[in-house]
């Protein structure tokens, strides 16, 4: 889908720095719990939010419940964020989930909040968690009461943004004797509308673009989880997840000016569809009666994305209307990607009667990606293959991982957890008939957590962890995604993995007030960098033919370009301080969740070359060096209020506000963003009706301004029509105390997040 790819390229780092990341959330199914008492406390390596009696946990969905969780926020209704973290990974009962980000959000919005026992926010995950970079973990713990029977949920939503976007979902859960089955299904259709204002240049040149993107989508997804309890010690499980997305006739329409003169209009038509299937077989053995167990998994993942696009640029002189009978330039692209992953893992949890806990495990992932990109240029009204941009890229990666952690309560007040994770990566990429490379590296990733319960009111924790961030598979595929003929994203197969070193000190007072001080150092940092430059060579007309002068020699011309490329640039350091409060007032009539995040960043690096550039005979490419060298202070605030309007606890009002200050990121300065949201909820037995308005004043949009010491600049304004009215209806049926099937971890979870 054009929107997702282009925005991911332009705003990846900005969204991460400003609580807007869309890359890597995942979840499964959840079950019911009776509500008794609200508790928010610090436990060892995590914050624990017991939502059992929280007034916000009745009659809503899991996504809205997570938005009300301390240290967690969402300002767009499409993603979740742990304050001060680059991204979020969602676990269910300590098992990493398998869905892509969009499927995850749909699942969370379709899961009743009554299914949740507690939510754990882990800001510095231990060695046993499969996470990367500076990611935090949200672990959703479900209630486990066993009774035979069935239950389910039906849910319908209708969002009104620029377009009307309906969706629906259903879940069905069954338990009988030794068999447990839970399944879910969701479907929806929506059209994303975005408006762009772009400008770039230097003191001698100015390029401006103005346009919009309409991206229609149809989505179908679901999963089935089957669990068979062979006996009290042995269990066997099978899980299947699928997702299909179709985005046909996505249109990007942009009008371009050079030095104030109207030059051309670019219209891009794109058809894309994505298929994702994953299977996992799980076997579990309980080795004693105090919680020790051996777990093994065998998994397979198949991911296939097809994209076809035609990008046409029409010359303009007086107006913006195009005349298709006139000569125009065009290019046609086919960018398929196929990923096959085979994985296996064995984990052993050993508990002792003296309170010692050992966790150890090994895993193996084997991934093959096939990217057969073809690009054709229009020459004399005939599409001719462009050999420089056509390539067949094969990438193979093998990862052998092993971890061990040891946890012990040393006294009534002091406990500790120490561990390490070893990962051996062997990978090689080949652009057939062009070039090849090998990437082999080993990483030892230590972890330490020390927790001191000073007394009943005070708790202090220190944590250290190290992680790596491997490039996503789509980032490695050496293809381009065009915005205009001279403005495009360029993927990079030569980007290196980044190394992260994270430290944290957290403090909690009276299970209501908390402070979290963090520091992160990144080596070989990478991001989408806007590189400007020029190409000098023979001029070509709209039909792709070389233009000759009166003397018979080719006319030499210089063309400026703007190329967004993910590449390593240097290092960065991030300091963060989060102060927050979660408390109920007036006998739980008013529940508040407030937090403020203060950040200080140091970026250092320079990009002076494009490793993906291919020399073209007769043409010379000159790249302007891109300097990243700055220090920046920023802050954000998140204010959530939930007010019970009736004594019967069946009417609730939600009033939320988010503010994010200006923040410098690799591509420039991201402007102020804020969002004011209001919701009204009515509970009628098994029925729940919700009306929500997100970003009432349309203030949550992205504006980036970047300027280099040389005087070159690049400005981007992306407006996604953020004001959304959502009407939702949920119906719960059956035995709501039914226990779900045993949750299982797939062996290839870490790979799925990189698709």
Question: Could you explain how this protein is built, in words?
Answer:
Helices cover 5% and strands 63% of the residues. The protein contains 5 helices and 39 strands. The protein has a 31-stranded mixed beta sheet that branches. Strands 1-2-7-8-5-6 form a 6-stranded mixed beta sheet, with no helix packed on it. A two-stranded antiparallel sheet has the order 3-4. Strand 12 and strand 13 (234-258) form a beta hairpin. The two termini are 14 Å apart. The relative contact order is 0.16.
Shape category: globular
Percent in helix: under 10%
What is the arithmetic mean of pLDDT? 85
Strand content: over 45%
Number of beta-strand segments: 39
Stretches with pLDDT under 50, minimum 5 residues:
1-36
The tally of helices reads 5
Mind telling me the C-alpha Rg? 27 Å
Largest sheet: 31 strands, mixed
For the terminal residues, how far apart are their CA atoms? 14 Å
The class by helix and strand makeup works out as mainly beta
